[in-house]
């Protein structure tokens, strides 16, 4: 899995994550990658948008955000996916797989994604 964040000031680094993700893993990813990006560009005045994936909506995760004072954008369970990062992922996939390119290993795909 590849993880990243975007904002009106730019984008975070892309992070390759291996294995099954839990709330604990997600909190680590947010702490190590999203928060430094957000604090660098927005200080503490920002709203974080995420979908309702179980690891995003868990009590552990929502309690974490409350404890550190990050405002989460309310996300209706039955709303269409309006998260702009989905458009970024589509563009990234389009670049990586342009002209029908196929990859025969995870490392080769990882390199292509990072270049895209």
Written account of the structure:
It is a single chain. With 116 residues, the chain is mainly α. It has one domain (2-83). It has five helices and six strands. The protein has helices at 23-42, 54-57, 59-68, 85-96, 106-115, and strands at 2-3, 6-7, 10-11, 15-16, 47-48, 71-72. A two-stranded antiparallel ribbon has the order 1-4. It has a two-stranded antiparallel ribbon with strand order 2-3. A hairpin with a 2-residue loop joins strand 2 (6-7) and strand 3 (10-11). Helix 4 (85-96) packs across helix 5 (106-115). The longest helix is centred in the first third of the chain and has 20 residues, at 23-42. It is globular, with a radius of gyration of 15 Å. The model has no long low-confidence stretch (mean pLDDT 90).
Key features?
about 120 residues; mainly alpha; two-stranded antiparallel ribbon; 6 strands
Topology:
Layout: E1 2-3, E2 6-7, E3 10-11, E4 15-16, H1 23-42, E5 47-48, H2 54-57, H3 59-68, E6 71-72, H4 85-96, H5 106-115
Parallel strand pairs: 5-6
Antiparallel strand pairs: 1-4, 2-3
Summary, kept brief:
This protein has 116 residues and is mainly alpha-helical.
């Amino acid at each position: 899995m590849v993880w990243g964040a975007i904002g009106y000031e730019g984008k975070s680094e892309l992070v390759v994550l291996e294995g099954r993700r839990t709330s604990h893993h997600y909190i680590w990813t947010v702490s190590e990658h999203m928060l430094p990006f957000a604090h660098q560009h927005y200080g503490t005045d920002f709203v974080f948008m995420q979908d309702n994936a179980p690891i995003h909506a868990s009590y552990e995760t929502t309690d974490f955000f409350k404890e550190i004072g990050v405002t989460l954008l309310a996300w209706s369970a039955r709303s269409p996916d309006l998260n702009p990062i989905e458009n970024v992922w589509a563009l990234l996939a389009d670049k990586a797989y342009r002209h029908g390119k196929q990859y025969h290993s995870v490392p080769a795909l990882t390199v292509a994604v990072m270049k895209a």
